[in-house]
Amino acid sequence: MTYKKVKRTLDIILSLIGLIILSPLLLIVTIAIKLESKGPVIYRQDRLGLNGKVFKMYKFRSMYVGAEKGGVYETKGDSRVTRVGKFTRKTSIDEFPQFVNILKGDMSIIGPRPTLTYHPWPFNEYTEEQKKRFSIRPGVTGWAQINGRKDVAWDQRLAYDVEYVENFSFIFDLKIFFKTIIKVSTMKDNVNVGETAQKKDQSISF
Q: 9: helix, coil or strand?
C-alpha cells in the first residue's frame, strides 16, 4: 500500500478523533460567533484543490458579513475582524471546520494550503512547475506554513509547496505536524504583513 493511501486513512481517523475531542470547544465557538454578530457561523469559500478542482473550504466566520469587499486578507489591527474572530484567528481555531473538508475528501491534514480561485492568480496562470502543488490534496497546514506562514511572498510559498510534493513522505509529514504544533502554540506569523503576492516583478498587497 502506498503512503498516499495510508495518508488518506490517517486523515479520516485523525479528523474524526479531532471533531469528537474538540466538539465542546466547537460548540462554544459556534455560540460565541452567533451571539456577537449577524451572519453564518461557518464561512464557505471557493478554493483550488486536487488537480485544480474547485471546492468549498470551511472556516469559522471571523469577520463581519461583507468584509471581503475590503480586501482578501486580514492585516494587523483590521477592524473587519470580530472580537471572537481575533481570538479564533490568533489560535487557528477558525481552521477546525476543515476537518469536515478532510472527511469529504477535499483536503488532507498536511499538504499545500488551498489557494483562492483568483489569487495569487487563476489556475491556468500557474507555471507547470507550480502546478505540481495541485497533484496532491491541499492541507490544513503545510511546509510553507511552518516556513513563514503569512509573511512569505507567494512565489516562495509555491516553491515550498513544490518542494513538499517532491519530497512527499510520512517522515516529512510528521516533521511538519510537530512543527505546526509549535508554530500554533506560539501564535507566530499569523497576520499578513507587507507584500504577500509576487509574480513577474509585480506585487499585490492586502
A: helix
Give the SS3 label for residue 143: coil
Does 197 reside within a domain?
A: no
SS3 state of residue 63 = strand
Say which amino acid occupies 169.
S
Taking the whole predicted model, whether its pTM rises above 0.70 is answered as yes
What is the number of domains present in the chain?
A: 1
Q: How large is the average pLDDT for residues 185-195?
A: 59
Q: Is the pLDDT of residue 197 over 80?
A: no
Residues 6+ apart with CB under 8 A from 73: 150, 192, 196, 206
Q: Is 25 helix (H, G, I), strand (E, B) or coil?
A: helix
Residue at 62 is within a domain: yes
Q: Of 100, 80, 96, which is closest to residue 29 (Cα–Cα)?
A: 96
In the chain, the largest separation of any two C-alpha atoms, in whole Å, equals: 49
